Amino acid sequence: MSKYTVALVAHDHKKPDLLAWVKTHLSVMQKCDLVATGTTGSMIEEKTGLSVDCLKSGPLGGDQQIGALIAEGKLDMLFFFWDPLNAAPHDPDVKALLRLCSVWNIPVACNKATADLIVTSPLFLSDDYQAERPAL
Ligand SMILES: O=C(CO)COP(=O)(O)O
């Protein structure tokens, strides 16, 4: 499996779910270059020993930094366990990030079920999977 650059993001109430998911798929995550919003990334580094490129915390611009990676063609996929039950002060940033995933055809998982499907997909496990980038 080639190295994918993967972003991990979770809102506070979803951080335990993302952490458990990363632990379940640790061997896959070890083969990826990981980037994350600040608090999510620090937690994953501390609890799993994985190396994570930690950006700003989400409310301070981390979602937008991940969006910039997408716009620059530097991100292969996003695992974003966002919280549908609690309002976030930076909701416009969250929407903007998810929007860019659609603009640039980036695989994005917003819950565990979809995340499981992505990392067990034969496409993902193939050596050279890359989502087709639209010519914009
Ligand atoms: O708020 C977030 C995503 O919108 C996540 O940010 P943190 O990882 O810094 O908690």
UniProtKB/TrEMBL annotation:
SUPFAM superfamilies linked: Methylglyoxal synthase-like
GO biological process, one term: methylglyoxal biosynthetic process
GO CC, one annotated term: cytosol
Keyword Disulfide bond assigned: no
Active-site residues per Swiss-Prot or TrEMBL entry: D63 (proton donor/acceptor)
Alphabetized GO MF terms: methylglyoxal synthase activity
InterPro entries: Methylgl_synth, Methylglyoxal_synth_AS, MGS-like_dom, MGS-like_dom_sf
Keyword tags: Lyase
Enzyme class: lyase
MGS-like domain location: 1-136
Reactions it catalyzes: dihydroxyacetone phosphate = methylglyoxal + phosphate
Record EC number: 4.2.3.3
Keyword Zinc recorded: no
Any one Pfam family match given in the protein's UniProt record, by short name: MGS
Binding locations of substrate: H11, K15, T37, G38, T39, T40, S57, G58, H90
Cited NCBIfam families: MGSA (TIGR00160), PRK05234.1 (NF003559)
Function: Catalyzes the formation of methylglyoxal from dihydroxyacetone phosphate.
Recorded family membership: Belongs to the methylglyoxal synthase family.
Name of the protein this chain belongs to: Methylglyoxal synthase
Native organism: Alteromonas halophila
Gene expressing this chain: mgsA
